[in-house]
Design a protein that fits this description.
A hairpin with a 2-residue loop joins strand 15 and strand 16. The protein is an alpha+beta fold. Helices cover 43% and strands 18% of the residues. Strands 1-2-3-5-4 form a 5-stranded antiparallel beta sheet, covered by helices on one side. Strands 10-9-16-15 form a 4-stranded mixed beta sheet, with helices on one face. Strands 6-11-14 form a 3-stranded antiparallel beta sheet.
Length: 411
Amino acid sequence: MSKSVDELTIIQHLQFSDLAQAELLLTRWFALHMHLQVERITLTPKAVSLNSFNGIYRLHGQDYFFKTHVEEQSAMKTEYYHAEMLRAAGYNVVEPLYIMQEQGRQMVIYPVVHDPVMFDLMREVETGAETFATITMLAAAEKLECERLLSIYQATLACSSAKDHAIAPIHQLFWHRLTGGRLAHFYAGKHVLLPGNPQKSGASILFEDLLHYRWCINGKMITSAHETLGASIERAKMVLHPEREAPTVIGHGDAHFGNVFMTREGTYRYFDPAFAGRHSVLLDIIKPLYHNIFATWMYFPKEVARDLQLTVELRDGCVFVEHTYVLTPVRRAILETKLEYFLQPLKAWLRSLNALPDDWQEVINLALMCCPLLTLNLLDIRFSATLTWLGLSQAMEMSNFFLQKDVERSF
């Protein structure tokens, strides 16, 4: 990791524990690397900012919004932002005013947007906070965007060669995380603590040993070809390999609700297209499908852990997990809306064009698996053992997403 990226990583972590110090360090960073003597800088720490940070700075009496990702990006990525491509394709997107991207340093400057962020609205609704938003309103906005997104897909669909597909930025979120060192960095040689007393003998399992265990989650045995985490990971390395021909579209790539504003008209407005470009239509749907619906535990670990009940038993080569984590009504409404108005018609349309790959279910399932497994380190100190096992359980459930009965009936 370069020194500059390391500095930004320190700021990203520090904003949650010492905001004033983080802002001071960032002020110095702006002066040193961007030659901007800002009058004021305000970081806005948010749970959604898992690998990034953002805020507002004032220069010459004008406010500007900034955002950066703290992950070192692969040399394969030839561009960092593709807002103009999205705009031309029909997306309502906030276009950056200035982009800085050098080796180890990246920062994007936007105009300040005053529309509410979907991530915040979803959280307000599911926690019963005072807000103008309702489940019906948010589901209606999702339905409208599903229909618009389908029309954009239909207008931009093409078949990309294996060579062209291989360089799409979106692979940074899946295959490169599996094979580029992140998987090993997070888990290799690490012990996974079992919930309960960490001093108890046998209260942990080596991650490499866990890879060979079968799973039974809330009484349902996983019996597919992906019945172990190790099998799922190895299959994902093949199925998600970038160098393959694929039906592609112009897509945002990372359209989780932290990157989506809701306008007064009830439509979506996207920003931060770090992984946008022409890429697999199947991969484009993954981040919003997982993070907008299933990942509340990842963004609000303390709050979820407070009410979560989870037990783990290792017996006869199988992991038996029982947990009480369920989707809140607003998350369920978004899932049902997405299945009915987006995923169903998307599958039917691709199939009508003979453009639906034979392994489409595996592509979606195994890309979904990468989200709980590789977005954050499940063994990080921020997660209790209970949440670690919830994340691992979700990785297994996502790797078999289209084998779940409720999804089968809807899809």
